[in-house]
Each structure stands twice: as structure tokens, then as C-alpha cells.
Amino acid sequence: MATKSAGEFEKSLARLEEIVTSLDREGIGLDESVALFREGKALAQRCEQLLKEAQAAIESVASAPSPNSGAAPPGTLPF
Fold this sequence. Notes:
The chain has helices at residues 4-24, 30-63. It is mainly alpha-helical and 79 residues long. Helix 1 runs antiparallel to helix 2.
């Protein structure tokens, strides 16, 4: 199931890749380089936060008890 965070992560990562490509080309001015660097740093921080949130969600699901943990095995009668 896709979430808003997943879409935000993908967009941020794509923009970050664009910024890296822009910074790699020759002829870019200092002011533009600094602006792109700032934008890239903010995007990298946001991506890191989104990844931490995803990791926490995964760990929460992985550590949650199974819905059937207290139930009788399938195919057995409870009496």
C-alpha cells in the first residue's frame, strides 16, 4: 500500500538526484550552487526522517504479537 510519505520520499529523492546532476555540470554560478546545495541538504534531511519513520513502522509491525498468537491452531477444536 503506497502512502503519502512514500510518494514524498520518491519525489524528494528524484529532486535530490536532479540537484546532484546540476551541481556536477560545469558553468554553474556560485549563487546557484549554494542555493542548490541548501535545497539538497534539506531534501536529504527530509529523506532521512522519512526513512526513520518507515523503519519505526516496520519494527512496530514486526514486534507486534500475531493476531492468532492466543488462538488454537487451525483445524483444531477449542474444547
